[in-house]
Amino acid sequence: MRFAGRITDWNDAKGFGFVVPNGGGDRAFVHINEFQRGSRRPVAGDLISYLPSRDQRGRINARQIRHAGQKIEVPRKPSRVPRAALGGTVLAVVAVLAAAAVIPVLIAGAMIGLSVVAYVVYWFDKSAALRGGQRTPESTLHFVGLLGGWPGALVAQQQFRHKTIKQPFQMVFWGTVVLNLVLVAWLVLSGTAAGVARSLGF
């Protein structure tokens, strides 16, 4: 059963707030990722409808949120490769290229290791967003991606439904992906990566 209510205590920087149901009752936690795709960014006082659900700690969360009067989105077949599949494929290709000695093992190991770090960092940030805790700065997320952890970031973004709607973040994120690819290409083609790998015994 869908409820209707108004958003209160909205924190736009963190993308969450609460909704108080019309007619009274317990307020529910609202997160930006639960809004129907194509929704405008919410502000305090917005009238919304939602499905209430309880998490493992008994807290009420608002799911499948729509602004009042918003049309129900008709599901469409995805036109793009899922982020998780893309990130996983990139890591698999990197491992194969390293095994075939096309790229140094050092670069492959760094990308795989940093992808694990990125996945964990995104998980921490998503968890903090849900419980209202201290968030990980976006600059940190971008820096890990720039260093080579962007495949793991892609997996985390899809799995946790985190940072996929915020367009300014996505623009910077894909910029770091391009910069990392350019850097890796230069390290490989210039022989710099191979030289460093040999000096380290790889």
Automatic annotation (TrEMBL):
| Annotated transmembrane regions | 90-121, 172-197
The family database entries (SMART domains) matched by this protein are listed as:
CSP
| PANTHER family in UniProt | CALCIUM-REGULATED HEAT STABLE PROTEIN CRHSP-24-RELATED, COLD SHOCK DOMAIN-CONTAINING PROTEIN CG9705
The record's annotation in SUPFAM superfamilies points to: Nucleic acid-binding proteins
GO biological process: one example:
regulation of mRNA stability
Pfam families found in the cross-reference section? DUF1294
Q: Which CDD domains match?
A: CSP_CDS
Origin organism is: Lysobacter spongiicola DSM 21749
Q: InterPro entries from the xrefs?
A: Ca-reg_mRNA-binding_domain, CSD, CSP_DNA-bd, DUF1294, NA-bd_OB-fold
Arranged from A to Z, the UniProt key words for this protein are: Membrane, Phosphoprotein, Transmembrane, Transmembrane helix
A single Gene Ontology molecular function, please? mRNA 3'-UTR binding
- Coiled coil region boundaries: none
Q: What is this protein called?
A: Uncharacterized membrane protein YsdA, DUF1294 family
